[in-house]
Amino acid sequence: MDMLQLSCIQITIALLLFTQAKSTTKEISALHPDDAVPSCVAGERSALLAFRAGLSDPGNLLSSWKGDDCCRWKGVYCSNRTSHVVKLDLQGSDDYRQALAGNISSSLLGLQHLRYLDLSDNGFDKIQIPEFMGSLHQLRYLDLSSSQFIGRIPPQLGNLSNLRYLNLESYSDTYSTDISWLSRLTSLEHLDMSQVNLSTIVHWLPVVNMLPTLKALRLVGCQLRSSPDSIQFSNLTSLETLNLSDNDFHRSSTPNWFWDLTSLKYLDISFNGFYGPFPDEIGNMTSIVELDLSKNNLVGMISSNLKNLCNLEGLVSLGNNINGSIAELFHRLPNCSQNKLKDLFLPESNLTGSLPTTLLEPLKNLSVLYLSDNKLTGHVPVWIGELTQLTDLGLDSNNLDGVIHEGHLSRLEMLEELRLSDNSIAITVSPTWVPPFSLVIIELRSCQLGPKFPMWLRWQKHASSLDISNTSINDMVPDWFWIAASSVGSLNIRNNQITGVLPSTMEFMRTREMDFSSNLLGGLIPKLPINLTDLDLSRNNLVGPLPLDFGAPGLATLLLYDNMISGAIPSSLCKLQSLRLLDISKNNLKGSISDCLVNESSTNMTDLSIVNLSLRDNNLSGDFPLLLQKCTQLIFLDLSNNQFSGTLPGWIGEKLSSLSFLRLRSNMFHGQIPVELTKLVDLQYLDLAYNNLSGSVPRSIVNCTGMTQRRDNDDLRDAFSAGVYSAGNYLVDYTENLTVLTKGQERLYTGEIIYMVNLDFSCNSLMGEIPEEISALVALKSLNLSWNKFNGKIPENIGALMQVESLDLSHNDLSGEIPSSLSTLTSLSRLNLSYNNLRGKIPTGNQLQTLEDPASIYIGNPGLCGSPLSWNCSHPEQVPTTRERKGDAMSDMVSFSLATGSGYVMGLWVVFCTFLFKRRWRAAWYSLCDNLYDHVYVQVAVTWASFRGRING
Ligand SMILES: *[C@@H]1O[C@H](CO)[C@@H](O)[C@H](O)[C@H]1NC(C)=O
Ligand SMILES: *[C@@H]1O[C@H](CO)[C@@H](O)[C@H](O)[C@H]1NC(C)=O
Ligand SMILES: *[C@@H]1O[C@H](CO)[C@@H](O)[C@H](O)[C@H]1NC(C)=O
Ligand SMILES: *[C@@H]1O[C@H](CO)[C@@H](O)[C@H](O)[C@H]1NC(C)=O
Ligand SMILES: *[C@@H]1O[C@H](CO)[C@@H](O)[C@H](O)[C@H]1NC(C)=O
Questions:
Q1: Residue 855: band (very low, low, confident or very high) from pLDDT cuts 50, 70, 90
Q2: Which of 183-197, 664-678, 695-709, 908-922 has the lowest mean pLDDT?
Q3: What is the pLDDT of residue 603?
Q4: 46: buried, middle or exposed (CB in 10 Å: 19+, 13-18, 0-12)?
Q5: In this predicted structure, what is the pLDDT of residue 527?
Q6: Which end of the chain is more exposed for a tag (fewer CB within 10 A), N or C?
């Protein structure tokens, strides 16, 4: 070993002498050593080993770092003149699990000849950039980007006066409050400090202006606020690339210092809140190649000064308000003898009018034409077909119409992205047409492709995204489709009339998201593609039992509602450990829910990650499912309209501590409302209606802060969202299945359910007083305690429920006067106090005067008087007796069993809650209704309307 080191040193010295003898050119000659080059310097080898000792290397990137000759190690480059390590290229990996981690040892200082150091894309342990790096004086090139450094950028880097290239781009939390050290890097050509927080630095530009050789400056997302009008003596005469995207300038786009930089080739000032007109100044930037002005608040047509920018290759302006005709815009594009314009990217720009009928000169070389989300009208012109360089065509979300035929497409050999969604375009090509292109992205949502399945898709075998939803296809899915689509990542055929069955080979597809909902697909659910994460098969005709092996271990969303799936819920569901959203409502599932706790070999089965579970409208039975003990992250649980029975277990309140929505209506649960339920502090929606619950309402309900205060709904929103957001749509869009019962009707909620705060105990046998605490649930929008046996008075402070839109206390035994505070409920639009024993004067004022059908609100309370009833309170002797009043409303035929107020309540309670809501009793109920007096009929019909949705469904 010693001998070896000795010889190393001898050779090094020899080489040193040799190189000194020659005239030295100071250029990095960092090549991997060939056999002629001697091995590395021993001291540097130990420095490298010490450096490695501080790192952890899960991806084995440094596995070649063994043996004596460190110049042969991967990423280590020695000078072939001096043998010194001059370059260390240890760029990590996009996959952070494969990248280097750990700490950076100061032994790096042993490499004093280092000119090039790249440690980018690694995952160091959230350390600061080491100050000692400022002592690597020979460095020309330093890349520390995206490597999980945090904290202050050390000003010692200012000692690296030889630096040409410095990249500190950071996606962790780095900052600098003083960048004056930069001004010492006078040879710097490339500076990138993107995402470094520079928010406290006002005078950053004068510092940058000390760098006369700067060619590229990237300060993306640095939270910069100041952008001066001009620089007095600009040093930045070599600057070619300037990227100031995503800062906080929020000022007029002109005047501005960068418009004077006529050497600029690439300028990106997107996402900055610049306002004012589209700057004329651009016309002076004759070198400009690419210009990105996206997402500012620029208003008005682009400047006609652009006409002379003969080098312009790309004009990008997403989301500014150009607000003019597309033809006018095309006429203002550079028009030179040698046109270079390739990319025209102008989505969301308020462009109007039709595309011109002839191909204009400036457009002839386009490879990207992106005019999505504008207000374009008219046909898609045939000259599109002459743009033979076209790779991306985006015309989606406009008001275009007419037909696209082979003439538009047959010469577009380079086309990769075709986006035509959300227009009124029909794509009509011959069934035998073979397209010249192989598309990667196919977005044709809401185009007219049908009624036959579009045959040309057969040749698109490399698409990563295919959306042919809502395209009027009324056909059987052809076998070739499953082959063509097998490599598609995102597949959407939603909302057509596609028949056929899912293939048994589906498991071999590469699809990650599938939306087949609202079609006519039948048959069984086969084993799913292995990498599938989101699946929507809702609203089809699927039958049979659920698969015993779903086969998609990463499945996060599974929407199967509104099919005809039968059988029991298999324990295979418990194997879907990533499942977050499961909706199998509106099917024919029966039996009790399989208890994976028992079926798994051990009882320490890990918790499931499900947050949203809906099993409503099935025939499931048995006790409240024990399995749910393992679903500790549940936020939304809906078991309504099944045959579940038994008592509600107290562990709901302990195990399901995140629960915000609990819907158990229309089951056969009995016993008391467990007091533990009120430990669910986030609970904002509790629906226990139509069960056989008894006992009283726990006073501790007031602990449910979900009902007492408004809250930030971001976590809730998350619980209802699924899939990936692409092209303005969630691929798997779940929110539309959510319905809630409020204001007397089953309403379809789209996303708004997260704002619903609801308490519904109706149609049970609850008794005792309505706890005064209920008036503390001030976030409630709907409160329904009807059809129970509550007695005592209406809580005096009920008027505190300022958000309440619907309040139903009807069909109880409530007595006393109506609290006058009721008139302060300004949001109220539906009130029902009928059929109690309330008495005294009806409060007046505010919202109470505006309610519809006012008389029916109070009917069946013999002791009430005053408007809107016809009994005047000033003459109590005129108030009729209970018997007289009842006789008014009821026919003799039914009143015999309903002689007293409470008897009447009980009678109808039995009818409603026991018979009415079983489907088979529906017909009988209609005939019963026919025998009632009109007034009662109306009252019942109103109530009836509120339950129909679910009965019909
Ligand atoms: C280093 O080696 C390469 C190839 O072997 C050679 O082209 C280059 O001139 C050498 N540099 C010096 C400074 O000797
Ligand atoms: C231009 O750069 C040189 C070299 O860094 C510096 O000395 C000079 O002050 C700069 N000029 C301005 C106006 O900042
Ligand atoms: C363009 O440059 C010329 C010469 O420097 C100047 O006079 C003119 O004001 C500039 N135009 C704009 C719109 O800035
Ligand atoms: C489009 O222009 C109209 C005025 O013509 C304006 O009211 C609207 O806000 C603009 N839309 C966008 C997205 O800028
Ligand atoms: C599934 O995903 C893995 C990891 O991304 C990939 O290697 C594999 O090829 C995919 N398999 C299929 C069938 O798509």
A1: confident
A2: 908-922
A3: 52
A4: middle
A5: 96
A6: N
829 Cβ inside 6 Å of ligand 4? no
Residue type, 697: V
CA-proximal residue: ligand 5, atom 13 (nearest): 510
Q: Is the CB of 29 under 6 A from ligand 1?
A: yes
Centre of ligand 5 from the C-alpha of residue 553, in Å: 12
- Which of 348, 350, 351 best tests ligand 4's pocket when mutated (most atoms within 8 Å of CB)? 350
pLDDT at 597: 55
CA 290 – CA 287 distance, rounded (Å)? 9
Q: Parallel, antiparallel, or unpaired: how do β-strands 101-102 and 55-56 relate? A: antiparallel
Domain boundaries, position 907? 901-952
Cβ 266 vs Cβ 242: under 8 Å: yes
E strand or H helix that includes residue 652: helix 651-655
Q: For position 574, what pLDDT does the model report?
A: 83
pLDDT tens for each residue of 165-180: 999 999 999 999 999 9
In short, whether 922's Cβ falls inside 6 Å of ligand 1 is no
Confirm or reject: Cβ of 281 under 6 Å from ligand 3. Answer: yes
Mean pLDDT of the chain: 85
Contact of 733 with 723, CB cutoff 8 Å: yes
Domain count, the chain: 1
655 to each of 640, 646, 671, how far by Cα in Å? 20, 19, 20
Give nearest CA residue, ligand 2 atom 8.
Answer: 210
**Separation CA 333–CA 339 (nearest Å):** 10
In 608-720 the beta strands, taken as DSSP E runs, fall at 612-614, 619-622, 636-638, 643-647, 661-663, 668-672, 685-687, 692-695
Q: Tell me if 433 is assigned to some domain.
A: no
| CB distance 460 to 438 below 8 Å | yes
Residue with tokens 């780095």: 174
Residue 128 within any structural domain of the chain: no
Q: For residue 391, is it within any domain?
A: no
Does residue 918 form part of some domain?
yes
Work out whether strand 368-370 and strand 392-394 pair parallel, antiparallel, or are unpaired. Answer: parallel
* Single pTM value for the model: 0.81
